[in-house]
Amino acid sequence: MRILGIDYGEARVGLAITDPLNITAQGLETIQRKGSDKVILRRLDEILATYKIETIVVGMPFNMNGTISQRAKITQEFVHKLKCKYHELKIDTIDERLTTVEAHKTMNFLDVNKNKKKDIVDTISAMYILETYLNRKEVG
Q: Domains along the chain?
């Protein structure tokens, strides 16, 4: 059973998935939101039909001081939709502060073309969210 990581953004949503043994995280794709969660939920239906997912983990964009940001409130609403629609799955959240910064550092290190960065930054962020979750599970 796999774990799906989600970087839920205003314009784009990055997805990452674990291997079947939940050891590593791989980037899956970036979805253009088009102003609607319906696009995301339809794609999640397809992904859930393809992979055996047991847990969905969503990055929570807290403020740097740990308080709930406006974006975090919107993300909580999305998480609520996930819990209603996919009630048979475990839906969890994890602090995602600085994952986008780390994703940009990674892309700069790899010398990714600046025109391609926008298309993959959310997927890389989702990988960091998922890796953080996996690391926390190992410790906890």
A: 2-139 (3.30.420.140)
